Amino acid sequence: MREAEIRRLLVANLLCAVSIVLAAVVPAFFLDGFSVLGTHLTWLCICSVCVATLNIILHLVLKPSQSPKRSSFAQKISRFLKCCIYFFMSCILFHAIIVLYGAPLIESVTETFLFAVLLSTFTTLQCLCLLGPNIQAWIRVYSKNG
């Protein structure tokens, strides 16, 4: 990787960290009785939205993977819908993994699923922004020899 790409990646990750801190601090000024521990469901939603919004904005601004060929509007819509489906599937997969690691299946479904959404936002959304719904690229990145 070039030095400029490494710097942009560092700045993007620092901005994600700052958005998490802001998601914990700023809502206390607007919501009565807000605390990360007391209203954890609200915080999980706010944090997921902040990180997702930041990732999408950074992707649109930095444009890390420009495709040389032009795509039509229908192809862009199809790609967007595939990305949404992959994101939802990753949420379901993380939810299943969290339950297998001991989270209550029936008593805390909302908390567990929102935590799965947060994990998907941190992992899958960044990969979807960079790689898109290209399964072969995902296999290359996550395989041993990739």
Automatic annotation (TrEMBL):
| Pathway listed | Glycolipid biosynthesis; glycosylphosphatidylinositol-anchor biosynthesis
Top-level taxon in the UniProt lineage:
Eukaryota
Entry's Gene Ontology BP terms: GPI anchor biosynthetic process
Parts of the chain that traverse the membrane = 9-29, 41-62, 83-106, 112-131
Question: What's in the GO CC field?
Answer: endoplasmic reticulum membrane
Task: Tell me how this protein sits in the membrane.
Answer: Multi-pass membrane protein
InterPro entries recorded: GPI_biosynthesis_protein_Pig-F
Compartments where found = Endoplasmic reticulum membrane
Q: What is this protein called?
A: PIGF protein
- Pfam families in the record: PIG-F
User: Which keywords appear in this protein's UniProt record, sorted alphabetically?
Assistant: Endoplasmic reticulum, GPI-anchor biosynthesis, Membrane, Transmembrane, Transmembrane helix
Protein's organism: Erpornis zantholeuca
